[in-house]
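General statements about sequence and structure are easier to judge against a single worked case. No coordinates are needed to read the tokens, only the vocabulary itself. The sequence in question and its structure tokens are set out directly beneath this paragraph.
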Amino acid sequence: MNRIARHLRNVARRKGSLLLILLMINIVLITGTTGKEDGKLGEEDEDFGWNDEEPPPDDNSQDGGIPLVRKEEFTSNQLYAEAYQSYIQALAYPARLVVRPDSSTVVDESKISFFCRADGNPLPSVIWRVNGKSISDHNRISIKSLSTGLSTLRFERVSVDDNATVVSCSADNGVANPVVAEASLTVIPRDKVPTGFPQIELHPSLKSVEQGKTAYVSCRVRGDPRAKVLWLRDLIPLDIRQDGRYSVSTIGNPGALMIQHAREEDQGKYECIARNSLGVAHSKAANLYVKG
């Protein structure tokens, strides 16, 4: 019994699907739900072993060297209880921030978005704060979150009074202490915009496309250093690396979005964002409709 518990505890530390299989086997051994005679293993279970090495003979073992575990042993053995706790800890892991909000510089009277993505098991909740306080100005500030842990905080209209604002994103799933990331907002007057600051030369416009066809959403950006482009749909960033149907032009009309084989879920409100080392610029938003 102790040998089994020690081995299960060691395996638990490695995490992985093998541990789940082992626990399932143990439950079968304890409850005797295999449909076989009590204390017997079903034929389908004999291929699973708890040890890489052949165990020594045991008076309480079936053929194959797998010891039987009685219910009273499961509940009273401290070593086994510790192994089970290791199993639970192996499944759960603390919250972490996969995407952290970036400090940004914007022009007065423009809009800005901050992005945060949390991961963990269980999936953490994401909490936004502005200057250490909960969001209260819902006329200017909005939040859009997905069940995947991705969240966007949007300032619709910034002013010079927002300069030096600190935005924080925290994630907490109860496994360990919450994790927090901060970003600062810099707002510059329009008459002091530096040369090379990102600009949107062509904004997205209303589009309608038939399902299965290719959709083109316009956006042309300029900046020095050359501006990078991020697309949003309904305030949520599009990860073009995860869907081969999406691509962003880098020549001719730099920033334009192409969506191949348009689907109903592609429908929404699109914006493009241009960013370089000097700052960030948001385009106007435009709807894309996909006709069935």
